[in-house]
Write a structure and sequence with these properties.
Number of strands: 10
Number of helices: 2
Helix content: 10-25%
Structural class: alpha+beta
Low-confidence stretches: 1-19
Mean pLDDT: 90
Order of helices and strands: HEEEEEEEEEHE
Radius of gyration: 18 Å
Shape: globular
Largest sheet: 5 strands, antiparallel
Strand content: 25-35%
Length: 185
């Protein structure tokens, strides 16, 4: 009886925790697809356009006070993955980032939003660029609904510190994953 009651409570709690309609999508990069070359970094041996994709979200929790967006490659051969993009302090009434909003000193980011430093060392989008011949890497695109209007982060903060602050203020998140690889030459 005790195990059955625990299973019912766990099932109910799980359905509540995952009942949200929070969703993230892109018209340029589909979930579970191959990322187009235009999003590849231009440097480190890569020759892409290094443009950030358009991203849209919907169904956020009603009590969200701001959003953050990250793009992360857990397959990078660093021991800690690779942060390609971090955007914080996106106002709660915003539901998208336009194509190439991740440019250095972007004029198209929503008012108040700021880009954190990627693992390329700049506060901007840093495109895909896995080592040649590696299996295709996974790129996880995530939007976080936050319980605070603003994350007070130093301008030189690492993506890991920003991630820590995002997770400490997260109400909910929505993600999709796409892959990119470079053939061995």
């Amino acid at each position: 009886m005790r195990h059955t009651l625990f299973a019912v409570i766990l099932a109910c709690a799980s359905s509540v925790a995952y009942s949200s309609d929070f969703n993230l999508s892109s018209s340029e990069i589909k979930a579970n697809s191959t990322i187009p070359k235009s999003f590849e970094f231009n440097g480190f041996g890569c020759t892409g356009e290094n443009k950030s994709p358009e991203l849209k979200w919907s169904g956020a929790p009603k009590d969200a006070r701001s959003f953050a967006v990250t793009v992360y490659d857990p397959d990078a051969p660093t021991g800690s993955g690779w942060w390609h993009w971090v955007v914080i302090n996106i106002p709660a009434d915003v539901t998208e980032l336009t194509a190439n909003a991740g440019a250095v000193n972007s004029a198209t980011l929503p008012k108040g939003a700021i880009q954190g430093r990627s693992d390329y060392g700049v506060a901007a989008w840093g495109g895909t660029c896995p080592p040649q011949g590696d299996k295709p890497h996974r790129y996880i695109f995530t939007v976080y609904a936050l319980k605070t209007d603003k994350l007070d982060i130093p301008s030189d903060a690492t993506a890991a510190l920003i991630g820590y602050m995002i997770h400490g203020n997260m109400l909910e998140k929505a993600s999709f994953t796409a892959k990119y690889g470079r053939a061995k030459q």
